[in-house]
Amino acid sequence: MLASRISRQQASRFFSLLKRNNSTLVIAEHNNEKLTPITLNTVAAAKKLGGDVSCLVVGTQCSKVAEEVSKIEGVNKVLLADNDAFKGFLPEAISPLLVATQNQFKYTHILAGATAFGKNLIPRTAALLDVSPISDIIGVESPDTFIRTIYAGNAIQTVKSNDAVKIITVRGTAFAPVEVTGGSAATEPAPGSDVTNDLSEFVSQELTKSDRPELTGAKTVISGGRGMKNGENFKLLYDLADKMHAAVGASRAAVDAGFVPNDMQVGQTGKIVAPELYIAVGISGAIQHLAGMKDSKIIVAINKDPDAPIFQVADYGLVMDLFKAVPELDSLIK
Ligand SMILES: Cc1cc2nc3c(=O)[nH]c(=O)nc-3n(C[C@H](O)[C@H](O)[C@H](O)COP(=O)(O)OP(=O)(O)OC[C@H]3O[C@@H](n4cnc5c(N)ncnc54)[C@H](O)[C@@H]3O)c2cc1C
């Protein structure tokens, strides 16, 4: 009895010692002007590891972002890498910078959000450092053990890593964001910021401009599927979304059919969302779609097929033709 109590105490002391010795680098995601909200979820995951949290701000003319990051609760230090070579946030340019930073500071963990940016950067960096990346974690069990989903969210996996540095992407919806206030971290230049990138060149990007909230951060999301029939009919959802201050998403079938652009796709191979309210319109509820939205607080489904699988996860289901239901709903919302 005594022996088991001592060993439990020893184990807990060992874990807190491990935590104290941790030092984590979070790679901030931003557009050179403003921080992307997933950074705040990623810092929350970093805090669960214990120890110091530093943030790397890498970009082009991004000192404003470094200022913003220095105020984040729980960030101890900001490393700034500001260089034209980082235009377009290409992983070919940023990975060598991360390797140089790691060689100097010997972090125990490097974290980025599980977004297109993080998913682009982390595997390349892990390969250069010769460790296994751990992707899309939804929980931290201890400094070396992490929880993640597999099989489109149908099974939960616990992964233990013995690598000297754990290189991880974090699912934002699984960690409540930290506050952007309360911190006062010092900023210093990141080592190896003077990189050149001969492997790839940033040409241009076209950004969708919208007054609606960003899909992954919106409190309400209305998504349309193949049932919308064409792109013009999505206007029904845009009008409703404007009244409800909602973001508009889509199933992959709607994206593949060209109804809407692919940055609106929700699901396993699209964006992961967990809003307060998710309204699925003309979406059948394939597991790959559910993988991106089933953690939403309240799910409403509108579908004319009473056997559609979406009704199995819906809190409220409306078996109705969407072309009748959506205008009716719209007329009821002031
Ligand atoms: C590797 C892989 C990854 C994938 N990743 C994703 C992903 O990230 N996201 C994703 O969404 N899918 C993904 N898919 C595709 C997925 O399997 C489904 O094919 C897709 O989600 C179906 O989209 P849908 O529900 O819009 O279309 P459908 O399955 O065709 O469903 C359309 C629904 O609309 C209803 N409907 C039709 N007309 C009306 C009407 N007038 N009123 C009301 N209801 C109506 C129908 O009853 C039906 O239920 C992936 C598939 C694979 C293999």
TrEMBL record:
Keywords: Electron transport, FAD, Flavoprotein, Mitochondrion, Transport. One of its GO terms (molecular function) is flavin adenine dinucleotide binding. Binds 1 FAD per dimer. Residues 24-206 form the Electron transfer flavoprotein alpha/beta-subunit N-terminal domain. Its cofactor is FAD. It comes from the Eukaryota. One of its GO terms (cellular component) is electron transfer flavoprotein complex. FAD binds at residues 226, 251-252, 265-269, 282-289, 303. One of its GO terms (biological process) is fatty acid beta-oxidation using acyl-CoA dehydrogenase. It is found in: Mitochondrion matrix. The keyword Nucleus does not apply. Belongs to the ETF alpha-subunit/FixB family. The electron transfer flavoprotein serves as a specific electron acceptor for several dehydrogenases, including five acyl-CoA dehydrogenases, glutaryl-CoA and sarcosine dehydrogenase. It transfers the electrons to the main mitochondrial respiratory chain via ETF-ubiquinone oxidoreductase (ETF dehydrogenase). Heterodimer of an alpha and a beta subunit. This is Electron transfer flavoprotein subunit alpha. It comes from Patella caerulea. The lineage of its organism: Eukaryota, Metazoa, Spiralia, Lophotrochozoa, Mollusca.
